Amino acid sequence: MAKVGRGLPAPKSKRRVKYGPNVVRLVCEDLASGMTYNEVTQGRGRPSHSSLYEWRRRYPEFAEATDAARAFGAEVCGDRALEVAEQATEETVRKAKLEVDTLVHRAAVLAPERWGGRGAGLRRAEPIEVVFSVRRFEKVIGPDGRVCVREIKPEGEV
To answer: How far, in Å, CA of 96 to CA of 98, rounded?
Structure first.
């Protein structure tokens, strides 16, 4: 099989998989187990990437179900990260750190609200009003020779 792009195998021509409750359940189970869309689409009887994205657009219930499944998949990634960290030894700590960081990053992408990922900051912030006040001061030398600072108030201000 020829390689395409990032070393992925060239897709074989797939028969179009029809949308239905069984395929929705299968896709959601896979996403909830932490699989990527790429992994979900591999194999016979599996929908293509374009089918998944089309179904998300066309069927809001499918979009909600896959979002929930991916959020659960984020928890699976978090659990895997904990397991990897607990099993690390002095010899494997560098590799384990990379794996843990990758799993936590993936969890943050899948469920930014829960994992505080980069996606959490993408919401539009409410505009805020910032007011600056400029105050002026002058140096004053008193009759006794002591130096002090006095605020110069604008006319009409007490």
So the answer is: 5
Q: Under a CB-based contact definition with an 8 Å cutoff, are residues 55 and 27 in contact? A: no
- CA distance linking residue 82 with residue 71, whole number of Å: 17
- Helix or strand holding residue 74 (H, E): helix 60-87
Over the chain, what is the mean pLDDT? 82
**109: exposed, middle or buried (C-beta count within 10 Å: 0-12, 13-18, 19+)?**
middle
Look at residue 61 in the predicted model and tell me its pLDDT: 93
Residue entry with tokens 């020829």:
2
pLDDT of residue 125: 62
DSSP state of 130: -
| Best CA proximity match to 69, nearest among 17, 24, 103 | 24
Q: What are 14's two structure tokens?
A: 């797939």
